Known about the structure:
732 residues, single chain, alpha+beta, six-stranded mixed β-sheet, 33 strands, 20 helices, eight-stranded mixed β-sheet, At1g16640 B3 domain
Amino acid sequence: MTSAMTRGYDAVPHEDRDRLRRYLEAVVAHRRGPVHTAVAFNAVYFGYDLGGDGYGGSPLSPDDFPVITFGERAPALPVGAMVCVATGSEPLYAEIVYKEGAHPDVGALGDVPAWVSGAPAGAEGPGRPGSGAAPLRRELLVPDLHAFGPALSLSPAQLHRLRLRRRWINGDGHVVVDVRYPSRDSARCDDLTSYTNHLLTTARAQLLSPFVPVSLAELMGSTHDDDLRAGLRGLLDTVRGVLDSTETLRSWGHYAITRASLAACWRDAGPLGGDDLKTFVAAVEHAAVPVRRRYGLSSPVTVYTAVGPRLRGFPEATEALSGLGYATAVCRANVALADVVRRDSEQGLFENGCRIALDDAFEGGGVWRSHHPGDAETPTDPLTPAGRGWLSTTTTPPEPTAEAEPVDLPLADTAALGPSELLRSDEDEIVWRAPLRLAQLIDGWFPLHSHVVRELRRTHGRRPTIRLALDHSGEPDGTEAVVDLTAELDDGTGRLTAVAWPHDFFPGLLLELRWPRGGTVIHLATAPLDEPVQVGGRVVGHCFDPCVLTREDAPGSDRHGDTAAGLDPRQLVLRTVRRCGLLTLDGHALLDRSGLPRAVYGRAPARSQAAALESAVAELLTERLLEPALGSRDVWSQPHYPARGGERTIPLIAYRPARPRVIRPWGGTGADGEGLRGVQFVPGHLRRLLPGRSPSEVQRAAFRQHCRRLGKADGWELPPGYTFVTEHTRGY
């Protein structure tokens, strides 16, 4: 992996693309199931051994994997996640290589109720999307139980017993779980966004492990979340581009299979071979064709077919659909049907009058819609999921009526914005981290962690005097002070009161607090950035929470108050977008452009006010303080970003906070890496030693320093059998 790969496929030199392409072609040919883009990234980043050990020699720590239990509720896990499948004896370590929806209303032969196709997660019935903020969805996960080599795999006999018992995995070797998503927006995320979020949260330790071949933090020259997210997006784009560019592979969505295996399947006369694929395609093509009648006209017919359950209806297909074979069969069937649609139809309309289109890419391995008469419908891309089944069972609510003085925008003080994070709790001390909020800055208080509140109240009463030792370093006038404060401790919550925050503290500043158990001193510290960054109108020199900074450091908000009074149109626009826009994890805010006047004034503004807002928007876009974007609006008038297929496209305006400038290790700071042509920077990395060799003390010390630079406070010793190669340049 190279630094250029973190900037996306188009930025990678051809020779590096070719080298990566050869490796990924070998990975797809070696693995027994289809290879998702996220799984291909794992192979490159964590070092998948094609000799049979898989991830067995990688830096992954199986004890850190999230645990999933068959038939129970589980956290949302994307394809590519490393998991531990709970069993009654030995744990099953696996990589999730495929997943799909497993809605209980889908029939055994693939017949799907219309409302299920394209329904949002948590939908309860036709036209009923569900009211819960955290939707629940049943999913089928296909784990690769041999991904970690023989040492961490069960024997065929053990796996056979587990399949027969159907207690920890089902009879096919799959895991069916009820997945609880943290929000409806997270349930709508695409595969690669979900995997990026997973790596930056649940799997963050393995992502930043110093034992990987080349750490992402080393490639980006930073451990800041914005840089890591940008680097991950670039690496995933590079992997996806390489998989799509090779002549030896075919793709269905993000899943890649070899052309050779697809051709062999068409030649195979056995279960789910060429004959069965032809039968499946013909069944979908003719599913909605009405029976000819002597008198009268046939009414329109629509049939929805789920690929996975339909394949189970073929004779002797049970064994072929077990394990990774299920994912392979589903991908082959979808590719076969897509090829027929491209070749034999006009935008999905066949000569028999039936229109075929993919309606849902996730449920049941893919739901295809067959409709007759097809010429009565507006033609669209038949391979872009439209969700017409769900839309046909809902009614479009009336557009809200527009309701002009500027209004103060309410500040949403939700737990999801800037939550407290417990870093360590042991017998000596409790350490946690939280961002400073605007209300805390204005009113001079700060919440204490519930663990600290409980112990302080038990030992020192409800209103103890607490000594706060403040260390605000990293600035020329760095602040170090000790003050005595009063703590107000209730049953489950508590706070420090009458805090006089330093003048340069701001909303979103990350504070790390440490309380030695039994004492009355709390140490509060900030962490300086490697270099300052400008966010909006503020130069930030310390670590911060981008979401809180976007929301609470908007124009009109400071330690003296929070109001829109007196702001000019430009400031009103920026304040409104930052306060009311859809907030992403990295602090971006996006707002429907047509809804801006109502959001600013609370009702329809006067013509002059609307014109002033439009002029302000144009100026901000020209100065790149705001950026244009495209989103979509669903049938409930709920906006979405990025735009979703089948929904009305709407223009958005986006506030994008600045990111810290990435300093390239070879000295260049431009995105194209201009500077030393012909010279390639090689980051520090591990190298396997020959048998009987051992690393020198110099290399051991270099590895410890490498770990410190990546923020790794433990695990400083080199793993057995490896040495450390320090960063260097090569070339001419």
